Amino acid sequence: MTLDEMKTTAVAMLDRSYCPYSHFQVGAVLECSDGTTFTGCNIENAAYGPTICAERTAAVKAISEGHKDFRRIVIAGKSEDFCFPCGLCRQFLYEFAPDLEVICLNGKGESITISLRELLPHGFDQSFL
Ligand code: THU
Asked: pTM of the prediction?
């Protein structure tokens, strides 16, 4: 998938979002180093806590299919602000790809690219254990 195709797919994933509580749709496409891609959307729950973000949906799909080597992720939101990953997703992704390229889209189709290391300086990893 080209980057443009990843962006289009992340936006298309907004329609798969299950967000009856926040009404905040998020879509994602995660690309592995071999070019394989996995999609995700946020999935909410009446108990709120079990809610899973779009980024982690995509990552969990990838890992469970045997892919752990992530290269980049596109995250799409609908608001004017760029949809940056939440703190929990930053740490979750850091486990597998501290140098991940993160491409965030807003509702106008504009994008910003930032590295996961910039988003999560001094992230926790196995070297601390
Ligand atoms: N959400 C994501 O899916 N990804 C983010 O990076 C930020 C937040 C979801 C979780 C919840 O369903 C909704 O957006 C509002 O927080």
From this structure: 0.97
